[in-house]
């Protein structure tokens, strides 16, 4: 009894489809290699899976480029001409855009205005006025921020100045200001950090004349005061 013909159709299950693709691809590449060895043929196979992954087989005696060149020569066609023409058209468009941009820049600098119509000149003037307005507003914002920052610095400097003046006034009112603070060690305040002797000098002055001089007498001797 003859076997029924199996209908070839797309495998619905994605996993089974990928497994079948991998097996058939390996089998196809094996057959291509056999043709290369047995028949001395130049074989090139390019396969792209549904996931976009490319697989290629090329006979060791040739390259993919040689196969394409041989195909073009044999068929009398140029595979790259249409692609080159598209690239050339895209290049021409980009050059035109570049020329227009350069002309627009020169016109905004006051050049290339001889061939500009009145309506275009009026539109250009409006664009320049709008741009000038935006620039002026930005300038004022920057200037305002700088002024406000400087005012804050000035206020801070004034507060520091007032604080220093207040400290100097307190020192003038209190001769012992700063010597002992909150019961601190007055030895250290006066400079006796190493436990040196706390000796103070007392100098007494007299305006009375001495027996040997007509003017005021010299300073009396200095008497050390022990703590």
Topology:
Layout: H1 14-39, E1 44-48, E2 54-58, H2 64-75, H3 81-108, H4 118-173, H5 186-190, E3 199-203, E4 222-226
Antiparallel strand pairs: 1-2, 3-4
Domain K-box: 84-174
Keywords: Coiled coil, DNA-binding, Nucleus, Transcription, Transcription regulation
Coiled coil: 77-107, 140-167
| Number of separate helices | 5
Shape: elongated
**Helix content range:** 55-70%
In the sheet with the most strands, the strands line up as 1-2
The helix/strand order is: HEEHHHHEE
What portion of the residues fall into strands of 2 or more residues?
5-15%
Number of separate strands: 4
User: Would you identify the regions where 5 or more consecutive residues have pLDDT less than 50?
Assistant: 189-193, 195-208, 222-227
Class from secondary-structure proportions: mainly alpha
Distance between the termini: 134 Å
- Provide the residue-averaged pLDDT: 80
**C-alpha Rg (nearest Å):** 51 Å
Largest sheet: 2 strands, antiparallel
GO biological process, one term: positive regulation of transcription by RNA polymerase II
GO cellular component, one term: nucleus
InterPro entries: MADS-box/MEF2_TF (IPR050142), MEF2-like_N (IPR033896), TF_Kbox (IPR002487), TF_MADSbox (IPR002100), TF_MADSbox_sf (IPR036879)
Pfam family, one: K-box
């Amino acid at each position: 009894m003859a076997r029924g013909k199996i209908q070839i159709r797309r495998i619905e299950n994605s996993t089974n489809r990928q497994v079948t693709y991998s097996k058939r691809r390996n089998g196809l590449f094996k057959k291509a290699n056999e043709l290369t060895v047995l028949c001395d043929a130049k074989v090139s196979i390019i396969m792209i899976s549904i996931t976009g992954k490319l697989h290629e087989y090329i006979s060791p005696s040739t390259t993919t480029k040689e196969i394409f060149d041989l195909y073009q020569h044999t068929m009398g066609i140029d595979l790259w001409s249409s692609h080159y023409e598209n690239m050339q058209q895209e290049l021409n468009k980009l050059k035109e855009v570049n020329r227009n941009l350069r002309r627009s820049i020169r016109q905004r600098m006051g050049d290339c205005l001889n061939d500009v119509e009145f309506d275009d000149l009026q539109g250009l003037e409006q664009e320049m006025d709008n741009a000038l307005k935006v620039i002026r507003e930005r300038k004022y914002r920057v200037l305002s921020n700088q002024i406000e920052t400087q005012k804050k610095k000035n206020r801070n400097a004034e507060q520091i100045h007032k604080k220093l003046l207040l400290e100097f006034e307190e020192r003038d009112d209190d001769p012992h200001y700063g010597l002992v603070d909150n019961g601190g060690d007055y030895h250290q305040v006066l400079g006796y950090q190493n436990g040196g002797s706390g000796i103070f000098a007392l100098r007494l002055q007299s305006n009375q004349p001495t027996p040997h001089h007509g003017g005021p007498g010299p300073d009396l001797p200095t008497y050390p005061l022990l703590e």
